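Supplementary Text 2. Reproducibility record for the structural model of the 260-residue chain.

All settings were left at their defaults, and a single model was retained for analysis rather than an ensemble. We include the record here because the model underlies the residue-level annotations in Supplementary Table 4.
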Amino acid sequence: MADQLGFDEATAKRLAAMYETPDVGRRRSLAVAALDAKPGDRVLDVGCGPGFFVSDLLPIVGSSGAVVGMDSSQPMLAMARSRCTEPNADFREGEATALPFGDAEFDAALSVQVMEYVADIPLALRELYRVVKPGGRVVIWDSDWSTVSWHSSDEARMHEVLTDWDAHLRHPWLPRTLGAQLRDAGWVDVEADAHNFTNTELSPSAISYSLMGLIIDFVAPRLGTEIVDAWAADLRRLGERGEYFFSYTAFCFAARKPRT
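Retained model, structure tokens:
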């Protein structure tokens, strides 16, 4: 797993484009609803990326609240600061396993599609527990990448590409153990919901369209451009023939810090 996806400026731009798609907009709506933030709340977004969640949460917490986005990527933080200029929005550089905040600073926290990149999940969950107030809520959203169903004319090649893609993060199947790890970290009332995302057309509005670009950038240097170009061309042909199909399942975990 040493060759994880790098969140440089080029990747930041690809992800920002993906976050504009209806599928990812739906993901934000579901995660924000699960967090259930209130006016006046101080909320932390761990791994805030280009700031879409911060932007969505600011109207909810209102002028009496605040939203803090934290990320380890300077290009991501630059995009986030540009997107969110409100006085009650703040951004910090940091790591999920060493949050640069004091104890019990936040009423709620969320982390979307981030923990699967973190090597030490128990430590990251304890850090979230530390910075959230007693009675506060946390939402963690990650994918089980084994749920990907992607139609191809060459299933062996599809398997090769997706298997190599799994190396872009630390925990391709994190949701399978996340509930137990949350409870071990002290969180209670742990709940999980599954959300499916399906594309039957290959269009720029589909999450799989943006995902293809990320996969190509990551896999091509490892497997070679010939394999990756053939993989992508096959998907485009299937799309032109009306035979395109992509589906995967993501999981939204919500939990609470005990009041005592």
